[in-house]
Amino acid sequence: MHMLRNDYSEGAAPQILQALVDTNAEQCVGYTEGDPHCERARKLIREACGLLEDEADVEFCVGGTSANVIALSGMLRDWEGVICTPDAHIVVHETGALAATGRTPLPTRDADGFLSPAEAERVWRFQTSTGRHMTRPAAVYVTDTTEVGGVWTRERLDAICDWAHGHGLTVFLDGARLASALTSSENDLTLEHIAHTVDAFYLGGTKNGMLFGEAMVIRDPRLREAFPYLQKERGGLMAKGRLLGVQFEAALDPANADQGGEVPYWRLARHANALAGQLRDGLVALGYEPYGHSASNQQFFAVTPEQQAAFEQAVGCETFYVLDDGRRVVRFVTSWASEEQDVLDLLALAKRVA
Amino acid sequence: MHMLRNDYSEGAAPQILQALVDTNAEQCVGYTEGDPHCERARKLIREACGLLEDEADVEFCVGGTSANVIALSGMLRDWEGVICTPDAHIVVHETGALAATGRTPLPTRDADGFLSPAEAERVWRFQTSTGRHMTRPAAVYVTDTTEVGGVWTRERLDAICDWAHGHGLTVFLDGARLASALTSSENDLTLEHIAHTVDAFYLGGTKNGMLFGEAMVIRDPRLREAFPYLQKERGGLMAKGRLLGVQFEAALDPANADQGGEVPYWRLARHANALAGQLRDGLVALGYEPYGHSASNQQFFAVTPEQQAAFEQAVGCETFYVLDDGRRVVRFVTSWASEEQDVLDLLALAKRVA
Amino acid sequence: MHMLRNDYSEGAAPQILQALVDTNAEQCVGYTEGDPHCERARKLIREACGLLEDEADVEFCVGGTSANVIALSGMLRDWEGVICTPDAHIVVHETGALAATGRTPLPTRDADGFLSPAEAERVWRFQTSTGRHMTRPAAVYVTDTTEVGGVWTRERLDAICDWAHGHGLTVFLDGARLASALTSSENDLTLEHIAHTVDAFYLGGTKNGMLFGEAMVIRDPRLREAFPYLQKERGGLMAKGRLLGVQFEAALDPANADQGGEVPYWRLARHANALAGQLRDGLVALGYEPYGHSASNQQFFAVTPEQQAAFEQAVGCETFYVLDDGRRVVRFVTSWASEEQDVLDLLALAKRVA
Amino acid sequence: MHMLRNDYSEGAAPQILQALVDTNAEQCVGYTEGDPHCERARKLIREACGLLEDEADVEFCVGGTSANVIALSGMLRDWEGVICTPDAHIVVHETGALAATGRTPLPTRDADGFLSPAEAERVWRFQTSTGRHMTRPAAVYVTDTTEVGGVWTRERLDAICDWAHGHGLTVFLDGARLASALTSSENDLTLEHIAHTVDAFYLGGTKNGMLFGEAMVIRDPRLREAFPYLQKERGGLMAKGRLLGVQFEAALDPANADQGGEVPYWRLARHANALAGQLRDGLVALGYEPYGHSASNQQFFAVTPEQQAAFEQAVGCETFYVLDDGRRVVRFVTSWASEEQDVLDLLALAKRVA
Fold it and tell me: Does A3 map to a domain?
């Protein structure tokens, strides 16, 4: 039985690993600077986004924290800050990596993982109330899916982007799990729409079947200029840059599409989502209570301590919160490597300890 | 014919790539925090260093710049600096990554790539001459092999370490090409001696047959405490940390040793050195003039512009300097992937354009 | 009629200005490094704190933000953070100055300006729940008086200090208005107790009759070592350092004491507090509603927009919040330069617009 | 006898001190944000520079290091550096304050304190030779007078500015001793020319008769936008900002001009220069050897250890270098407060120990 602990427990999906093996002996220039794989991956990503070469840069990062730091420190000047939810990855899970570049996250009070224009407006008004004496908001940070598995709708995303652009702020979308979002049953966004709406975002690879890697799509002029230098300065430039190109090329290559024409990047995420949905429906049918609402590959449930212990032992799920009534909020995460039998086994266990 | 452009042109050496394939389906905890491969690699490295678990930490970085930044920002306080040669990687090739953490490199005037006690002493005296008004030196940074391929002797290394420790400074050794150094014909150092003499160093993987990765050995108490946090804060912590463990495990596993008992980590470097030596001897025999002295896998030669053009076209070698007489200093780099025929082909070309 | 806008509207109190004039022609060494005035001021401050020379350093800063940044960046390592209230000066009013050094403020939900052990404990638990993945709390920041004029009691201060020290955190007290706090009718703390309880704090001068200047008392060993260098590195070291010494010397010199034996530093603050109390009592008697509770030189009242306009025109008071019912929270600030007639005039106006 | 140790040994020149006394009781808004003295000083400075209000901002800093850090961190982006001489104040005397903002000084090999286009070009070529892998030069830093008392000519300044602007770099001029430079017998520059040639510079006050303060004139658009925020974020914003306005107003007020129409700002510096010239000529006449060439208020001489001891005891001069022949380079500094008798006394001593 596989763990359902997280979506970065394994190595790479088979097609992606194979591409690394197949290209291993090639000699390439380093640093993502012109090798054929990075160039082809850039082309495939631009095409998927409906962007021309002069409209956007595509760059490759080794991981999510590094991507967030490079992007936000390039979009913000020293004294500027980024409005985000209080549970944002950049606030909670990155050991102050953004502050280490002198930039400040400015959390709202949004409790559901979605950044709202009303809360952004409140923070904006407060932070601009005494001019130079306060960190000035200059960007907003959103994540699709959210930290708790939420899927952004087009209406929601357009609303926060309209608000931001109306106030002269840029929008950065952390897409560590964007593939899960865009293949969710509740999604009504397209990659093309996102690419034309936000100012920079990335297509996550680490949590969607690659060994590592995130592909950043940058329309923001300031970040386009800054990125190459900041990536090196922040320690995020990989010598064997081709590894990033090879993986994204394999994930997006039409030659790797299935019969329905879907390339691995989406297929892997769709698979994970399907199993997560099956898991959620099964648990709900058994009377378990979901915590929040997720239609993506992370599922949160409020369970008793005994159930938590049983689930953790079986599938390594993590405990996120302890509720006031003593129950635990646990998280199950499916991935491209999860199998239906894993879900069935978990549901069988859940039935026993219900 | 292979390029002799650099030692990070290919993917991974076969044994190492195979280990990644073999372990791909395993589920591991992330972030190098306790998966069996990282743990075993740590053990193998400690053993090779003759260090007990409580004497040193072993941590894994994704690349050299990231490793240098994390280590030095952990060894130095905000107002402290690191004495190094003027051609040091941290001065010249890292886009101010160290300064981006607020720490300052303090270059000497050493012209040969080796940091000398006399120059270190000069910088130390100057930088401490007005107390709080100057960046205070608190560490020294050395590289084995040096930027220009030089191999440190035990006498040299002991001298700078004695000087540093005598002045209360710590020593960091950048080992991006340490495998090449320790398998050089001119080496008289042992890994064990280095590990017991410097305060922190790393065993380079990226330039010695791995996809990426450097293994940091840390005895310095301040850095031991800082490293886990700084690695995350500086964006250098890999989610699928096991990839680093798997590669170092494969490179150092006695099960992968050859008949002479040598594990891949040293065998790959010895191979590169042998070919580099053959290349150097062949060029010298043809009348070419070496630039500086290298007994490692980088070889520098002063050639005419026509020769430079011919060599660059053939093997992609880089041009480092233009001399006053118009000649170019080119660099040939061999790696685990280079073959004897590559050297023979280059020598044939060199004979034609001599 | 004087403005009651803030306590840094004028120059210096007469005794302090006179001392600057009297010593103007003296030649002194610079940078607070050994001139007789800084040395004597250090001695007077240590005596007032009941601290021996080897127990604490006394250093002089040009202003509050500079003092906060130097102190906290010296008490915290790169990845560490400081627990504080959400309205803390370092969070709200310093344009991210602390983040600019890479350190992170970690706000609680305390709504009254006093940092509580319960909230500090909640933040601590959260921030240490995933180890290296989060900013680690290493200090707490408190202000006496608080941002909204609150005066710390000994019980409260001991409680948060006990909590902090019990968890291995240090305590920094921002004393920009400490003179007002310690001369408040509600104060039960002594300078000596504070000096022996917190790890570093400062005696504010800018808001208590000096042209500028804050005197930092440092027991924390890490900050003692860091301070001289950080002060220069953060741009906070004054060339004519004697100006700081001269002012604190004059403010604390027994030769300047009144008949009751009180030196200017306390007398000036006591004067401001007395007038603030008279103002508060007068307004309350007229039916005005205080906002929060202050027994110090800042007084907050909830008033109608018409009253706000009248008060602002008359005494320049600032508006801090707009309440849900449309009322404004305005702040009146008295200082050493305020006079009883100013209060009487304001009360007369308040009666007219009541 | 006055010390000739430095030009910040005393308080303020009488006219300036008097202005502080005269305005002490006025109530002003804080932070240099609109009080009448700052506004008038801004106007006087713009007029002296021949700049219209929309052409340049005038801002006030508390000291030189703070001014340098704010200006350069506002002119440079994170990965950019500033070309300067190796003896530049920002390299040698500021404890890495610029690096603490992540920006990197890029020293040339100019040995005489003047930044030359040839050396700037060499550094530029080197630093742009590998693109993103190196700190990119984006500004140059010059000081008038230089660290060793040199006075820039118009030809020299135009040459480096032309070079910089021709390469897309901006120019920052550190004017800590600009008054001494512009009143030097060897000066052929005008304030107006400087103001229209460099992109930002400051008029030093600390070393020219003020208690503290430097007035920054900013034409660079990036710095104009950044300055207000960076000044607060870097801890360099003074609460009682009017103190800066009052002093510069007094120094530049035509009402304070002498019979020849010269305002104190220039008169004070001219006085110091005259005495320094008398000192230099007298020492040379006695056979003492100048070190370098200065026509400003700092004079350097190479003397024997015995002479050094005698001079230090008499006038507190500092020793800057020890020459290979054992002689010491000492520095004499005159100021607005020096008197002719001081020079005569020193010359008498010099005659005795010659």
Answer: no
CATH number assigned to the domain comprising residue B311: 3.90.1150.10
For residue C269, the distance in angstroms to the closest alpha carbon of chain A comes to 26
Residues C302 and C226 in one domain: no
Q: Which residue of C has its CA nearest to A131?
A: C95
Q: Which amino acid is located at B138 in the chain?
A: A
Pair C212, C337 in one domain? no
How far apart CA D114 and CA D143 sit, in angstroms, is: 8
Band of residue A301 on the pLDDT scale cut at 50, 70, 90: very high
pLDDT digits (tens, 9 = 90+) for C228-275: 999 999 999 999 999 999 999 999 999 999 999 999 999 999 999 999
Could you tell me if A34 lies within 8 Å of chain B, comparing CB atoms?
no
Give the residue among C8, A328, B97 at the shortest CA–CA distance from D29. Answer: C8
Q: Is B317 helix (H, G, I), strand (E, B) or coil?
A: coil
CA distance D47 to chain C (A): 27
Shared domain for B110 and B227, answered yes or no, is yes
Q: Do the strands B318-322 and B328-333 form a parallel or antiparallel pair, or are they unpaired?
A: antiparallel
Cβ within 8 Å of residue C15, ≥6 positions away: C250, C251, C256, C264
D140-156 confidence digits (pLDDT tens):
999 999 999 999 999 99
* The pLDDT of residue A166: 98
Residues of D (152-211) whose Cβ lies below 8 Å from B: none
Same structural domain, B164 and B216: yes
The candidate with the shortest Cα–Cα distance to B127, out of C240, D99, D96, is D96
Domain membership of residue C194 (yes or no) is yes
Average pLDDT score over chain C? 97
* Structure-token pair, residue B353: 């354009």
Residues, chain D, total? 354
C206, D240: Cβ pair inside 8 Å? yes
**pLDDT at position C348, please?**
97
- The answer to whether position D121 is within a domain reads yes
pLDDT at A214: 98
What is the overall mean pLDDT for chain D? 97
Predicted ipTM > 0.85: yes
Whether chain C has a CB inside 8 Å of the CB on D78: the answer is no
SS3 C343: helix
Neighbours of chain D (3+ CB pairs under 8 A): A, B, C
Residues of A in contact with B316 (CB under 8 A): 27
- The tally of domains found in chain C comes to 2
* Residue at which a domain ends, from C203, C237, C256: C256
pLDDT at C260: 93
**Contact yes or no for D133 and B96 at CB 8 A:** no
The whole-angstrom distance between B26's CA and the closest CA on chain A is 6
Within a domain: residue D2? Answer: no
Measured between alpha carbons, how far apart are the two ends of chain A, in Å? Answer: 20
A301 in Cβ contact with A283 (< 8 Å):
yes
Whether residue D172 is found in the same domain as residue D217? yes
Residue ranges with strand state E in A115-228: 136-143, 170-174, 200-204, 214-218
State the Cα–Cα distance between residues B164 and B160, nearest whole angstrom.
Answer: 6
- Nearest-CA neighbor of D244 among D205, D200, D202? D205
**HSE-CB for D55 with a 13 A CA cutoff:** 14
Q: Give residue D291's pLDDT.
A: 95
Residues A227 and A342 grouped into a single domain:
no
Q: Which alpha helices (H) appear in B102-203, and where do they start and end?
A: 117-127, 154-166, 178-182, 191-197
CB atoms < 10 A from the CB of D124, how many? 22
Task: Say whether pLDDT at A1 is over 80.
Answer: no
Nearest residue on chain B to C135, alpha-carbon basis: B229
* Full residue range of the structural domain in which residue D306 is found: 265-353
SS3 B137: strand
Please tell me whether residues C230 and C317 are part of one structural domain: no
Element (H, E) at A322: strand A318-322
Give the CATH number, domain containing residue C84: 3.40.640.10
